[in-house]
Structure formats: C-alpha cells, structure tokens
C-alpha cells in the first residue's frame, strides 16, 4: 500500500511538518512530494484532487484526504503517542476542519514562505518523489 504526503513546498510550516513526520516515521511508511513539483501535480491529477487544494494532501489506498482528515490519518503510522491523534477522526469534520482551515489560511503569514523546497537530507532523499 502506498502512503503519499503532498505538501506546500514554499511553506515553512509545511517544511517543518514534513521533518516532524520523517523523524517519527521509523518504518518509512510515507513518501513525500511538494504540491508544486511535477510528481505532485501528476498525483493530484491522477486522484482528481480539486485545484483549489493548496495545503496538505494524503493519498492512501487509492483515496485522497485533505484538511484535518489528512493530518489525522498521517498520525496513525507515527511513532509514540502521536498515533493516538488518529482517534480524533471520531470528531465530526464540521468541528475539526474549521480549526485546520484557520491554520492553513494563515500559515504563510504566521510562519513565512520560501522560494523553493528544501532539499531533504541525503539519507532521506529516496522518500521524496
């Protein structure tokens, strides 16, 4: 089964989030691509992700997830207590997603942007598409 995380490559918060996941993904479950990359665009097209999605996208079992559903599903495979966040999927989306949306809409203002994606460390490059 493939687990792909697409992220905003120009966002400092998203870059930090990818590094956070890499550190806690000891079984190397996830592969990554920036939304802006050719690989990211091909995946978005393949799964029919709406063009207005500009934040986190998680692809697993031939389905895509966005907003809080994506973030919480990613937690399922992380090391430590983070995997318990997966249980928050029981909270209805109308409660979860507005919180996610506030952070997503303000992430560039709060955390800043960069001109290009950071290069992953050499030992992690095979996990990036």
Plain-language structure description:
By secondary structure, this protein is of the alpha+beta class. The protein has one domain. Strands 2-1-3-4 form a 4-stranded mixed sheet, with helices on both faces. The mean pLDDT is 88. One of its GO terms (molecular function) is protein-disulfide reductase activity.
Features of this protein?
four-stranded mixed β-sheet, 40% helix, alpha+beta, 129 residues
Blueprint (SSEs and pairs):
Layout: E1 3-7, H1 12-24, E2 31-34, H2 38-47, E3 57-60, E4 63-66, H3 67-75, H4 93-111
Structure at a glance:
This is DUF393 domain-containing protein. The chain has 129 residues and is of the alpha+beta class.
Largest sheet at a glance?
4 strands, mixed
Radius of gyration: 14 Å
Q: How many structural domains can be distinguished in the coordinates?
A: 1
Count every beta strand, where a strand is a DSSP E run of 2 or more residues.
4
Report the sheet-strand fraction.
5-15%
Shape: globular
What's the helix count? 4
Fraction in helix? 25-40%
Q: If you average the pLDDT, what whole number results?
A: 88
Strand pairing plus helix content: what structural class? alpha+beta
What's the helix-strand series? EHEHEEHH
Q: How far is the first residue's CA from the last residue's CA?
A: 16 Å
| Low confidence ranges | none
Identify the strand order in the major beta sheet.
2-1-3-4
Describe the oligomeric state of these chains in a short phrase.
single chain
Protein name: DUF393 domain-containing protein
Pfam family, one: DCC1-like
Organism: Lentibacillus cibarius
GO molecular function: protein-disulfide reductase activity
């Amino acid at each position: 089964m493939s687990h792909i995380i697409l992220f905003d490559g120009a966002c400092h918060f998203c870059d930090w989030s990818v590094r956070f996941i890499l550190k806690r993904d000891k079984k190397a479950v996830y592969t990554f691509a920036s939304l802006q990359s050719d690989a990211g665009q091909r995946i978005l097209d393949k799964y029919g992700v709406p063009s207005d999605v500009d934040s986190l996208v998680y692809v697993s079992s031939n389905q895509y997830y966005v907003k809080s559903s994506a973030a919480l599903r990613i937690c399922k495979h992380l090391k430590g207590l983070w995997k318990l966040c997966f249980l928050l999927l029981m909270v209805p989306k109308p409660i979860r997603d507005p919180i996610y949306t506030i952070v997503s809409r303000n992430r560039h203002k709060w955390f800043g942007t960069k001109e290009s994606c950071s290069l992953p460390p050499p030992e992690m490059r095979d996990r990036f598409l």
